Amino acid sequence: xxxxxxxxxxxxxxxxxxxxxxxxxxxxxxxxxxxxxxxxxxxxxxxxxxxxxxxxxxxxxxxxxxxxxxxxxxxxxxxxxxxxxxxxxxxxxxxxxxxxxxxxxxxxxxxxxxxxxxxxxxxxxxxxxxxxxxxxxxxxxxxxxxxxxxxxxxxxxxxxxxxxxxxxxxxxxxxxxxxxxxxxxxxxxxxxxxxxxxxxxxxxxxxxxxxxxxxxxxxxxxxxxxxxxxxxxxxxxxxxxxxxxxxxxxxxxxxxxxx
Length: 259
Description:
Blueprint: H1 2-5, E1 10-13, E2 21-26, E3 29-35, H2 40-46, E4 53-58, E5 64-69, E6 73-75, H3 84-95, H4 97-105, H5 113-123, H6 126-129, H7 132-144, E7 154-156, E8 165-168, E9 173-175, E10 182-184, H8 187-197, H9 203-210, H10 216-239, H11 243-254
Antiparallel strand pairs: 1-2, 2-3, 3-5, 4-5, 6-8, 7-10, 8-9
Helix pairs in contact: 3-9, 5-10, 7-10, 8-10, 10-11
């Protein structure tokens, strides 16, 4: 990275699962660099979903380096997820035709419920599959597949944790970390956000800010995707030996109501 920017830049790892992200600092200027980002990043930037893309450069070895504006700001706080601007930004993402078109050009296809259940059953380890609560969730997911119908597919983030929402010092809100982007039912993002952050008595108000009415069908879809994604997260956390978090999410699904 140093030879790309010059010796005057201080470059440090930015963390993350891939190890491909870095911060570059020179005087009062700071950039967020990433190796081999998806072309999807350019569309996210153009749509104002992520901080501005400054430049893209191809290295001699074929790697592509992107540089984004590195903003001064902070993560959204859990209680702030109830704010209208969170609902409005998520709606903007789900309605974006440029985002959907780009993911389709990159070969993405809708992540259908039946495919999601197959992934869960194939990827959960034997110990998890033997747990009664996991068996109950999988039975529920299979039974409800015919009822999880989506009228219009959208680009979904897949991890709407408050840590991925960035509020800049200029009061601009962004949703970052798009490595898990997919084409799916918008209820996938909505379900996680509402189940994690919004008291159930406030769901109707939040969804009206987003632009939807709370219906029994939407509630079922949100519950379905929340349970499915939580099982996937539990397996990932277990593979990382993060057992305290595994226990937390086991308690979470155990506390949900489903038949």
